[in-house]
Amino acid sequence: MKSILIVEDEKTVSNLYRVILKDEYEVEIAGDTKEAYAALEKKSYDLVILDLMLPGGSGAEIAVELRKHHRRTCIIIISAILGGLDGKEDLSRKVQQDLHANAFLSKPCSPALIIKTVRELIGSKQEEEAARG
Fold first, then answer.
1. Which CATH number does the domain 3-132 belong to among 3.40.50.150, 3.40.50.2300, 3.30.300.20, 3.30.1490.20?
2. How many CB atoms are located within 10 Å of the residue 113 CB?
3. Are 66 and 46 in contact (CB under 8 A)?
4. Cα distance between residue 123 and residue 131, in whole Å
5. CA–CA separation, 111 vs 126, rounded Å?
6. Could you read off the pLDDT of 7-52 as tens digits, one per residue?
7. pTM for the full model?
8. Helix count (H) and strand count (E) of the chain?
């Protein structure tokens, strides 16, 4: 089963993400940067969902570190920090490039969009792994 780490300090939000993903994926939660780094030291995840504003640091720092040590891990940033990115695709693309994220979703976002994005990224990762053989 593919694994996902959710890095989110708001428990109601992280629990919602867990509920909508747990039937298809192994899901773990980190509530701050310290917990996130500890989880990432123990295990490689197929996908990490990151909030940008976290206690103890920034989700951006975690994204940069992920790319250094876990290059094949997919990253989805879900954050209100750049809220309302609708119609601001250039800014969204810049955030994705700067943080090496595979996707950026603005809070609040629908559970359906989260599930769709996760499935697309993990599906493309599986295809890439199969092609490598």
1. 3.40.50.2300
2. 13
3. no
4. 12
5. 22
6. 999 999 999 999 999 999 999 999 999 999 999 999 999 999 999 8
7. 0.85
8. 5, 7
